[in-house]
Design goal:
The protein has about 325 residues and is mainly alpha-helical. The chain contains eleven helices and three strands; from the N terminus they run H-H-H-H-H-H-H-H-H-E-H-E-E-H. The C terminus is likely disordered.
């Protein structure tokens, strides 16, 4: 028999679950500019599909868990919406991705979202039942949710290296943190450890991101961002030394070629939604940049000196 305290807790859990659905939908829609860009350019450039495939797999697991739990309707709603959104993202990627990336995405989808999910489904159905099945599935969900929440680690590492928050907008970090708080509260009120636990990690990473944003938001941007849309063109561009007096402006995922005032040039290959998902980082150290500039300046000075010396010799000969 339910007590008034239990009813009160469930009412609050429902409120937190509704708010969690709203905020989580906003987070799921964050990569929309990325995929609109892919649609407009008819090319995926340097973006990768792995983050969206993993997010789809995680949502599928949570739907299975919620169905077994029987009283987790709000988990079903948000993860069903997540499945639809991630499927649309992956479909757009498959349409415009180059052949190798398309084949790789299909393989990962087959192995992870069909193969592994089917294996988990069959094993939990055949080898476990009741509370044991729910417990096993709950820990599987926690493990994969932790992998999703660990994605910002690459972004945080990037911010530290570049001292730039270009790929870590404060608004997204804030909503990720808020989402983690809401779902942690939802799980806590329902005494659901498997929902509450991974959101502790989400909250910690979100707070760290906001702190790093506060630290580095006024720092000079010291990165040069490129994609690998055209390998040969990029190879030629990468073999050109930048002019240290130039300046680069990067808006969203748009890239212009330029240089930096510093000793290091950093190339970034954006991966998926740059705001949320990990990105590959390749550092190209160009410590000789200033040395080359000094040499060029010295050559100009030498040429001027030679001209002056030549004129002086002509005067002496006369």
């Amino acid at each position: 028999m339910s007590t008034s305290a239990d009813i009160h807790h469930h009412q609050w859990a429902f409120i937190f679950g509704i708010l969690g659905n709203i905020v989580s939908i906003m987070v799921c829609l964050a990569p929309l500019p990325t995929f609109y860009r892919i649609y407009k350019k008819k090319a995926t450039e340097g973006f990768q599909s792995i983050p969206y495939v993993v997010s789809l797999f995680s949502a599928m697991l949570w739907i299975y868990y919620a169905v077994l739990k029987t009283d987790a309707f709000l988990l079903i709603t948000i993860n069903s919406i997540g499945c639809v959104i991630e499927t649309i993202y992956i479909t757009i990627f498959l349409i415009y991705a180059p052949k190798n990336a398309r084949i790789m995405t299909i393989k990962i989808l087959g192995l992870l979202n069909f193969g592994l999910f089917s294996l988990i489904l069959i094993l939990t159905m055949l080898l476990a039942n009741g509370l044991t099945r729910l417990t096993i599935l709950g820990w599987v969900c926690v493990a994969f949710s932790a992998c999703v929440f660990a994605a910002p680690l690459s972004i945080m590492r990037l911010v530290i290296k570049t001292k730039s928050v270009e790929f870590m907008p404060f608004s997204l970090s804030f909503f990720l943190t808020l989402s983690a708080i809401l779902w942690f509260s939802y799980g806590l009120l329902l005494k659901d450890l498997y929902v509450a636990l991974p959101n502790v990690a989400g909250f910690v990473f979100g707070v760290l991101q906001m702190l790093m944003y506060a630290i580095y938001k006024n720092k000079k941007q010291v990165v040069v961002v490129t994609t690998e849309e055209d390998k040969e063109h990029r190879y030629q561009e990468n073999n050109k030394l930048p002019n240290a007096h130039d300046h680069q402006h990067v808006s969203g995922n748009r890239t212009t070629t330029t240089a930096i005032n510093g000793d290091h040039v950093i190339r970034l290959n954006t991966m998926g939604s740059a705001e949320v998902h990990p990105i590959d980082l390749q550092i190209i150290v160009l410590d000789h940049t200033h040395h080359l500039e000094n040499m060029q300046q010295q050559q100009v000075i030498d040429q001027q000196d030679d001209k002056v010396a030549g004129k002086n010799m002509e005067v002496v000969e006369v």
